[in-house]
Write a structure and sequence with these properties.
With about 375 residues, the protein is α+β, with helices and mostly antiparallel strands. The protein is about 55% helix and about 10% strand. It has 16 helices and 4 strands. It has a 4-stranded antiparallel beta sheet, sandwiched between helices. Strand 3 and strand 4 form a beta hairpin. The two termini are about 45 Å apart.
Length: about 375
C-alpha cells in the first residue's frame, strides 16, 4: 500500500479546488533529490497517467467558466507532478508524451500571458508591454486563452497607478474592441460570458465615451452576471441605468440584495422596486448570494424555503431562518439532498453551518426556531 493512496482517493471524490489543494500536498511531500519507494512511484505515475488522460479529454468540454478556471489550476499541478516524477520531458513514457505535450502547450499560452503581466508590472509597465500582451492574446482563437488578458489585468488592479496615459488608451481600445466583439456573438459560450463579465468590470478603470455606449448596449444581455457587472460599472461611472434593468436584477433572487445594496451606495434606492424590497425577500437573496461563493456551495441551492422569523427577546435582532437542499459537490454525501439550515439578519448578514434540519426539529414551529437560534446562532 502506498502512503499516497488515501490522498489520491480524496482527490477523486472532490471538486477541482480541493483536488488542487490535495495535489499540492502530494507535491510538498516529494522532497527534491529524494527517491520514492517503488510502490509510491508506481501509484503516483498511474495516478498522473489517468489524470492527464482525463484532463486532455474533458478540459475543453467544461461549460462553466469558473469551473474551467479551477480545473486549470488543478491541471497545472498535475503537469508539475508529472515533471517531478519523470524528472524531465524525455523521461515521460512515449505513449503519454503526446497528451502531456498537448496539455503543456495549451497551458503555456495561459502562463505566457500571466507571466507577461507580472513582468510588466515588476517595474513601470510601458505601452509596448501592453501591445505585446494584446498580441499574445490575439494570437489564439481559443476564447479561454484569450481571456487571460482580462483576468491578468484584473489581478494587477492594485497597481494601476503605474500605468501611463498612452497605455491606458491602448488598454481601453482593446477592451472596447472585445466588448464590441462579444455583442456581435449570437450564442456566446461560457468562456465568452466569463470574459465579458470581467471586461465589464474592468471598464470602470479603462473607459471613454465609446466604452459607455458599448456598456449601455450590453444591458440587453440575458446573462445575469454580465448584466450586474455592467449595471455596477455604469453606476460607478455616474451614468444613468434604466429602471427596467434594475427591476430585472431585483427580480432575480440571487441578485436582489446586492442590487439593493449597490443602489444604496450610489444614493439611487428610489430606482429599486418596492414590491421586491421586503425584508424576507432580501434576506433570502443575501443567503443565496452567500451560498454561491466558491468557498461555500459554489452554486444556488436546488430548493430554499423560509422556516420562519425569530426575534431575539429584548433586542432588535431579527433572524430569517431558511431550510434548503443542494446536490453541490462541496457537501458530504450524507448531507446531499437533505434539508439543511441557514439564516440571514440585517445586523449580522447570512450564514450556514450546513447543519441537518432533522436533528433540530421540535414539537412546534415556534420551538423549532427557538432551538435553531439556541443551538446554531446564539
Amino acid at each position: 500500500m502506498s502512503r499516497f493512496d488515501k490522498t489520491i482517493s480524496a482527490i477523486y471524490e472532490n471538486d477541482y479546488t480541493q483536488k488542487t489543494a490535495l495535489t499540492d500536498f502530494i507535491l510538498q511531500r516529494i522532497k527534491p533529490g529524494s527517491e520514492l519507494e517503488r510502490e509510491d512511484f508506481e501509484t503516483l505515475t498511474s495516478f498522473v497517467r489517468g489524470q492527464i488522460t482525463f484532463l486532455d479529454r474533458t478540459f475543453s468540454s467544461i461549460k462553466n467558466f469558473k469551473e474551467k478556471q479551477q480545473c486549470e489550476q488543478y491541471a497545472l499541478r498535475i503537469l508539475a507532478l508529472g515533471f517531478k516524477l519523470y524528472k524531465s520531458k524525455e523521461g515521460i513514457p512515449e505513449d503519454l508524451r503526446s497528451q502531456f505535450d498537448s496539455l503543456s502547450l495549451y497551458f503555456d499560452v495561459l502562463t505566457d500571458i500571466e507571466t507577461a503581466f507580472r513582468e510588466a508590472f515588476f517595474e513601470k509597465p510601458t505601452e509596448a508591454d501592453f501591445k505585446k500582451i494584446i498580441k499574445l492574446a490575439e494570437s489564439t482563437s481559443d476564447e479561454y486563452q484569450r481571456g487571460k488578458f482580462m483576468s491578468g489585468l484584473l489581478a494587477q488592479r492594485a497597481r494601476y497607478n503605474l500605468i501611463d496615459e498612452e497605455s491606458f488608451a491602448v488598454i481601453t481600445d482593446y477592451i472596447n474592441g472585445e466588448l464590441e466583439r462579444f455583442l456581435a456573438v449570437a450564442n456566446p459560450s461560457s468562456d465568452v460570458t466569463g470574459i465579458w463579465e470581467t471586461a465589464a468590470d474592468l471598464a470602470v478603470d479603462f473607459h471613454n465615451g465609446t466604452t459607455v455606449d458599448l456598456l449601455k448596449k450590453t444591458l440587453n444581455t440575458e446573462n445575469s452576471g454580465i448584466l450586474f457587472s455592467t449595471f455596477k460599472t455604469l453606476l460607478e461611472l455616474a451614468e444613468e441605468v434604466p429602471d427596467e434593468t434594475v427591476k430585472k436584477l431585483a427580480s432575480l433572487p440571487e441578485y436582489a440584495s446586492i442590487t439593493y445594496f449597490t443602489l444604496s451606495q450610489f444614493s439611487r434606492l428610489s430606482q429599486y422596486p418596492e414590491e421586491l424590497a421586503s425584508n424576507e425577500y432580501l434576506a433570502k437573496s443575501d443567503l443565496l448570494q452567500w451560498h454561491m461563493a466558491p468557498s461555500e456551495l459554489g452554486k444556488m441551492p436546488d430548493e430554499i424555503l423560509l422556516l420562519g422569523i425569530y426575534k431575539k427577546p429584548l433586542s432588535k435582532e431579527v433572524y430569517y431562518i431558511f431550510k434548503f437542499r443542494s446536490e453541490s459537490t462541496k457537501l458530504p454525501y450524507e448531507k446531499k439532498r437533505k434539508w439543511l439550515v441557514g439564516w440571514s439578519s440585517e445586523m449580522y448578514g447570512p450564514h450556514s453551518g450546513y447543519d441537518l434540519l432533522a436533528g433540530l426539529v421540535k414539537e412546534t414551529d415556534k420551538k423549532t426556531l427557538k432551538n435553531i437560534y439556541k443551538e446554531l446562532i446564539y
